[in-house]
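Project standup — Tuesday

K.O.: blocked on the structure for the chain from last sprint. Re-posting the sequence here as requested.
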Amino acid sequence: MSVKLKPGAATLDQWRAIYRGAELSLDPACAPLVASSAAAVDRILSRGVPVYGINTGFGKLASVRIGDEDLATLQRNIVLSHAAGTGDPSPAPIVRLMMALKLASLAQGASGVKPETVAMLEAMLRHGLTPVVPSQGSVGASGDLAPLAHMAAAMIGVGEIQVNGRHMPAAAALDGAGLVPLTLGPKEGLALLNGTQFSTANALAGLFETERLFQSALITGALATEAAKGSDTPFDPRIHALRRQPGQIETAEALRRLMAGSAIRASHLDGDARVQDPYCLRCQPQVMGAVLDLLRQAATMLEIEANGVSDNPLIFPDTDEALSGGNFHAEPVAFAADMLALAICEIGSITERRIAMLVDPALSGLPAFLTPRPGLNSGFMIPQVTAAALVSENKQRATPASIDSLPTSANQEDHVSMAAHGSRRLLDMTTNATAIVGIELLAAVQGCDFHAPLQSSDALENARACLRADIPMLEDDRHFHPDMEVANGLVRSGRLVAAVGMDLPGLQ
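H.V.: unblocked you, prediction finished:
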């Protein structure tokens, strides 16, 4: 797939495709805007008056005037001095998405960069040159300065670039692709460093992974309901219409479709002594529906941010003004990331409760720990413990990052968003939650096996077959970890969602 990136108007589907590895090209219609913005910077400079970020120092040093002869050095220095990140390198798909976000921002003609700078970013993306960007060092205000500085450093031939999974000196990587390192002009270093693109890229990655996680958890939740011979009455549309929550209505409808035509369900419609199921079964529409609404709200915020311009100062060629503001403050991204963290946490939490219910014979009516011969075999005893451990980890990580602020830059930057680490935690949280959903997949399919020869719905039988193609029923204890890895892979890759053969609620 190839994405034609139209700055300011890219869709969530396009950002998702870029994150998943799609090639991209910049809409050439933006070229006049970029050229006009660069020309405006030249005209502003010709006046000889101090303008922040163009001929002054930065941050607390904004009052220091820089002479014309030092303007190129000023821009190079800000890149080198701000490339002060630490920690593990950010995943290449996130860096690539960050670059695409920065490209879309610069190409809107409000940043004052030269066409050659925009072309360099596009060329690096086209050639698969991914700067090595340490994952820590941004507080999410004044932009994601350190991470974006490492990106900018690679563009001027400093630092490292990843090519085909191998790290190499940036200058050598550029040379290998026939690219010449940039010499930054006035405003360009600051334009590359300012902005929320690192935080936004991490948050978007978390959003896209959570969407797949959410859909997978609907499937495993339906399977768990079948395994426990739970009632589908709580999914009746009349219940949810009265509450009017859109996500809840859609989730209940999805669960009904997933379970439609189940012989397991039909087998206990008459004479079922259980009046009400535990909340982990009965309240799936309420919990997962609220999660869905939260995901969509976060998606709206992040799609707007992805299409915005967030560096500083901003150039307005029609009046030749450079206006200094605070678009680099990533509070919207921080809030979106906090919302996603809550959603991820709750997906894992209710999923673990269903696993615990399934292994408890008093609640599920199934053999203890889902093994035909409990005692001799431990069955699913410890996978449930693992799920509980992962839920607890995610609870700790779900503490809002946006409520924290630590002043920086000699108190010039006295309120910050903490969006960067609020966003960075999301992929780790989705990894934990994916493992929890993977355990439920194993447990729920095992539970349904005890109801043979009765079968579930066509959709859920397809999901069962997807797992059973690689993993047989657990008759006696065996090395459990390989089974978990297979199940995790089905969730993470989207194969489980694809297997049911129906559209499930998502971001749009």
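K.O.: great, moving the ticket to review. The first strand starts at residue 2 and ends at 5. The chain has 21 helices and nine strands.
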